[in-house]
């Protein structure tokens, strides 16, 4: 267990307030023992609240391409089909987790992949469980696409007390499943938008843990692709080779002659020469 870096400023301010308050009581009311004990108890309680809120526990994370990890500690408050209109613009299963002030407010990537979309939105500070908080409150929208081409979109949503959202990712980043992608101070909410066909493994009202609870199992990317008809193979007009079958089966391979042999021209024999005539002798 460690103290999260986002709580350093809050812890310093808390310690300063506690020190000043106790110094004033000690200096101006040294005899008010009951009041001093009340101040001590309140100071200790405030210090513990800040420490527990910004705690960052260590634990082993089991990763998988087919599972969706919970992005934060809290309680499941929404599981329903809805339209995602900001980036994906399709029908999705929305799963929302509400974080109370006593939960760990570290936010973790539900899947591994590439950040294909990121945007920060200014907005209102309605209570986190309000139906319109997902679209009207201050929020960030992040979409990660895994190695199979399946996209999961999720949002950090500020609540009535949470007035600061922190994020550590940007578009184009390669992220790991379970890795921290942000932090929300005090009460807040995280929405996850999953593809239709995803197998949901939690129910409304379940208490979940960020980076440890498996929310769902993703469908394979191959099942989302409609089978396409095989391409037609056009016949080739090249002449087929002549095949001479081996009827005696003495050889396993047939003899293939690609081109018929061209008959060679036969040379004609030269005409025979007549013997020369002998000269006649003169008679004496």
Automatic annotation (TrEMBL):
UniProt site (Cleavage (non-hydrolytic)): 187-188
Cofactor note as given: Binds 1 pyruvoyl group covalently per subunit.
Subcellular location(s) of the protein: Cell membrane
Protein's pathway: Phospholipid metabolism; phosphatidylethanolamine biosynthesis; phosphatidylethanolamine from CDP-diacylglycerol: step 2/2
Top-level enzyme category: lyase
Catalytic center residues: 188
Keyword entries, A-Z: Cell membrane, Decarboxylase, Lipid biosynthesis, Lipid metabolism, Lyase, Membrane, Phospholipid biosynthesis, Phospholipid metabolism, Pyruvate, Transmembrane, Transmembrane helix, Zymogen
The protein's Enzyme Commission number: 4.1.1.65
Transmembrane segments: 7-28, 34-54
Cofactor: pyruvate
Catalytic activity: a 1,2-diacyl-sn-glycero-3-phospho-L-serine + H(+) = a 1,2-diacyl-sn-glycero-3-phosphoethanolamine + CO2
Record PTM text: Is synthesized initially as an inactive proenzyme. Formation of the active enzyme involves a self-maturation process in which the active site pyruvoyl group is generated from an internal serine residue via an autocatalytic post-translational modification. Two non-identical subunits are generated from the proenzyme in this reaction, and the pyruvate is formed at the N-terminus of the alpha chain, which is derived from the carboxyl end of the proenzyme.
Residue ranges of coiled coil: none
Xref: HAMAP family: PS_decarb_PSD_A
Function: Catalyzes the formation of phosphatidylethanolamine (PtdEtn) from phosphatidylserine (PtdSer).
Name listed for the protein in its UniProt record: Phosphatidylserine decarboxylase proenzyme
Species whose genome carries this gene: Mucilaginibacter dorajii
Lineage of the species this protein comes from: Bacteria, Pseudomonadati, Bacteroidota, Sphingobacteriia, Sphingobacteriales
Name of the encoding gene: psd
């Amino acid at each position: 267990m460690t103290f999260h870096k986002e709580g350093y400023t809050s812890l310093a301010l808390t310690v300063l307030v506690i020190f000043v308050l106790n110094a004033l009581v000690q200096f101006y009311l040294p005899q008010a023992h009951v009041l001093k004990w009340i101040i001590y108890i309140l100071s200790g309680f405030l210090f513990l609240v800040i420490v527990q809120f910004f705690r960052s526990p260590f634990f082993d994370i089991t990763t998988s391409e087919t599972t969706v990890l919970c992005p934060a500690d809290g309680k499941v408050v929404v599981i329903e089909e809805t339209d995602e209109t900001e980036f994906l613009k399709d029908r999705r299963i929305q799963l929302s987790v509400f974080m109370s002030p006593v939960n760990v407010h570290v936010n973790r990537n539900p899947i591994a992949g590439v950040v294909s979309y990121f945007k920060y939105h200014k907005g209102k500070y309605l209570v986190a469980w309000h139906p319109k908080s997902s679209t009207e409150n201050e929020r960030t929208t992040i979409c990660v696409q895994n190695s199979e081409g399946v996209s999961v979109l999720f949002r950090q949503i500020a609540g009535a007390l949470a007035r600061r959202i922190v994020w550590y990712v940007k578009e184009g980043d390669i992220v790991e499943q379970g890795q921290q992608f942000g932090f929300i101070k005090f009460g807040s909410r995280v929405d996850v938008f999953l593809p239709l066909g995803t197998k949901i493994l939690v129910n409304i009202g379940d208490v979940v843990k960020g980076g440890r609870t498996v929310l769902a199992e993703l469908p394979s990317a191959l099942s989302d692709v409609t089978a396409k008809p095989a391409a037609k193979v056009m016949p080739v007009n090249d002449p087929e080779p002549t095949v001479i079958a081996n009827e005696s089966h003495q050889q396993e391979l047939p003899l293939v002659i690609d081109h018929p042999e061209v008959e060679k021209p036969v040379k004609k024999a030269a005409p025979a020469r007549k013997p020369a005539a002998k000269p006649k002798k003169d008679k004496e």
